[in-house]
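Could you help me review a protein record that somebody else here produced? My question to you is simply how this chain folds and whether the tokens agree. Thanks in advance; the entry in question is below:
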Amino acid sequence: MAETTAASGRTPDSTRRSERSRRAIFDAALALVGEVGFARTTVEGIAARAGVGKQTIYRWWPSKAAVLLDAYLDLAAGAAEDGEAALPDTGDLAADLRTVLRATVDELNDPRYEAPTRALTAEGVVDPVLGARFVERLLEPQLELYARRLRAAQDAGDVRPDVDPRVALELFVGPLTHRWLLRTRPLTHAYADELVGYALHGIAARP
């Protein structure tokens, strides 16, 4: 006969227990990276913080980077459920892009996202498998939202038909990411607005 819990008389739910452990591991990984940085975060530290054995972590993930990536994807998925999974389309392309870039600035400056994003970006450079998964699971879906909005703007006649949306979107997200990664200057809403103006209207002198 299966062993039952003394309090309820029911067989323990291993699926529920595994989910609790998974959530605890995700929370621990994100917290530790924010507190001590990725380099000083260890599987042992994550396990101790989560209250699980390190063998539990290694049963599900091959490395601390893999744990952090899944934790970050879970965090991003939760944020997506709270908002719209698309760029706004009010008919005003400039205003829509400013709205989204300002939200991106806020996210990159948010301690919950900043430390894990920096860690995964850096680790993805030296670990091509992790980097490819980071791009496929997180970056690519976000970039496609930009491309979709720019295609809609082409259909509306607001963007030239010969423009490649996948190249054009880099005019917005590329400089933002560059400034954030290198910390050359503060990442602000004003900067996001300037990017939109420069990208849509160019920098050459007008007649």
